[in-house]
Amino acid sequence: MFNTSLRALLALVKKDLGVWIRQPANVVATVLPPLAFLLIEFMGAAAVGRSPVALVQMDHGAKARQMAQIFYQADVFRLTSASSEAQAQALLKNLSVVAVITIPSDFTQQVEQHQSAQIDVEVNNLNLDFTNDIRRSVPDAITQFYQAQGSASPVTVTMQEHDLRARDVELFQYDVLPTIVLLLMISGLVSSGISTSREWDSRTVKELLLAPVARSTIIGGKVLAGFLTTFGLGLLVLLLGYALGWTQPQGLYWLSTLLIMALVALLSSALGVALGALLQRIQPVIALSINVAIYLFFLAGGIGVLAFEPEWLQVIAAYIPLSYGDHALQMAIFYNSTDQLGTDVLVLAISAFASLGLGVLAMRRSITS
To answer: What predicted TM-score, i.e. pTM, was given to this entire model?
Structure first.
């Protein structure tokens, strides 16, 4: 009986995978929303990651060159060198830059004579994010200038940086992992939901019921087919991110990364089976699956840092399994850490098996009715 059930299970999986491959619209419905989010994140990171600033260097003395070099080396500006104040004002007026920094013609002389040396900053405060970046970054650059003077500086400055994390993660790179989680969620819901609802939509569910196999085998085949397509798609995106330098887990952290992805894929596939069995129509399944996945994505913290989100959202996210998957992937891929991995795995495992039970219950009730 075991061999018979296994052959039936594999036959169901093969059939569902074949149908999934032959339905490019379903693949597009799965992949398109995460790709759209990824594009939005890329554009957003490019817009706010480094503020566009015009630098007017009126003085070419040693101190002025040193000050200008500090601005160029600062990792918060996208500097455009302007040859004159008129050119810089034109850039500011045309919104090509958000601010103009001017090093005056007597800067070196004033510094060498230990007099007050002025640096002019003109900011277009059209956006508080840009404005605050400039307000914080310019004083920081001036502080670095004082430190570089050593004992000759009229202000003694000593700076020491101790990073909490071993590496810096770019804003867009940080947003890739929640998008992979979103992809896993949409893929599982859509692929399993469609394959399940199709049985009622095309009336083939009667053939399944008349087949000499246990109903648990039918349900297991649906979940396994959805899991394989979902996990395979997520793995493909992870490897693509690895090739592009976005997501590069190291050593044993590959195992925790794959485990978390597998649990999220199982969770979404089981929910997809339940959704498909309840709705029994393909179009409502696609629409509801995408909306459910996106709402869960944002309630889990979305593309932001959950610890810095509003308190009410943090409370909600504590009950959303995706937030634990996102956290575990960040720890494994970005920071080579197992911080709270046990909690993350436990929550995802309980959620996945609870969803599996829900899928079995919904499938059984729909088959019985």
So the answer is: 0.77
